[in-house]
From TrEMBL:
The entry's keywords: Isomerase, Rotamase
The protein, known as: Peptidyl-prolyl cis-trans isomerase
Top enzyme category: isomerase
Keyword Isomerase: yes
Organism in which the protein naturally occurs: Limnohabitans radicicola
GO terms under biological process: protein folding
PROSITE patterns: CSA_PPIASE_1, CSA_PPIASE_2
Classification via InterPro entries: Cyclophilin-like_dom_sf, Cyclophilin-type_PPIase_CS, Cyclophilin-type_PPIase_dom, E_coli_cyclophilin_A-like
Record keyword Isomerase present: yes
Residue ranges the record marks as coiled coil: none
Family: Belongs to the cyclophilin-type PPIase family.
Catalytic activity, EC: 5.2.1.8
Reaction catalyzed: [protein]-peptidylproline (omega=180) = [protein]-peptidylproline (omega=0)
Length: 222
């Protein structure tokens, strides 16, 4: 038996618990949207054909003041999404802070624990994917990075745009902006409430909420 998926599902194989009445297929899904699933026997004859719909992945951030659900866009920013999910799967974001809160701009998270202690365990920085057609509009999520010209420097930190910040978009190779990779689909009111938190300075860090806003868990829910 062979499985064809038009490369939307890599290394497809029939599971060992398949039977003559129930076929179980395992594979690694690498695309979202609709893709064909075709089963053929050893002679190449069609056994079964259908269309499988894979939704965009969603991640829920459980925070100390409410939940925020992000819908990721792997079609536009595949390696950026994969990088973010890697941190989600490892549990890295647990007990990290929304450590930078700027009303009328962004709320930023993913790199510090209480007291603005940098969390270890960040992996290799990723290549900037800002030229992907997505804009830093209100409710979108982008990767934080170091300042220009250290473009390929994003690791675990990300920010939610509270307003349309189109000046952060890709303009040119010399002004590449910041890579949008997701959208808030639920809980934008939680992000807005963060912007109402009193902030101050902690060491060299400005705009830090005086009361910790903590990510208690991050998990993929779709």
């Amino acid at each position: 038996m062979t499985v064809e998926t038009s490369s939307a599902c890599t290394n497809p194989a029939l599971a060992t618990n398949s039977s003559t009445t129930l076929l179980v297929i395992n594979c690694s899904v690498v695309a979202v949207g609709d893709f064909p699933l075709i089963l053929k026997n050893a002679n190449g004859d069609l056994v079964y054909q259908t269309t499988v719909t894979v939704p965009k992945p969603q991640v829920q951030l459980s925070t100390s003041i409410g939940n925020i659900t992000l819908e990721l866009n792997p079609a536009a920013a595949e390696s950026t999404v994969n990088n973010f999910l890697k941190y989600v799967y490892s549990g890295y974001y647990t007990n990290t802070l929304f450590h930078r809160v700027m009303p009328g701009f962004v709320v930023q998270a993913g790199g510090y624990t209480s007291g603005m202690v940098a969390k270890p365990g960040q992996t290799t920085p990723i290549v900037l994917q800002s030229n992907n057609g997505l804009s830093n509009l209100r409710g979108t999520v982008a990767m934080a990075r170091r300042g220009d010209p250290d473009y390929d420097s994003a690791t675990s930190e990300f920010f939610i745009n509270l307003v349309d910040n189109t000046f952060l978009d890709y303009k040119s190779a010399g002004a590449p902006g910041y890579a949008v990779f997701a959208t808030v689909v639920q809980g934008m009111d939680v992000a807005d409430s963060m912007a109402a938190q009193p902030t101050g300075n902690v060491g060299l860090h400005a705009n830090v909420p005086l009361t910790d806003v903590t990510i208690t868990a991050a998990q993929q829910i779709k």
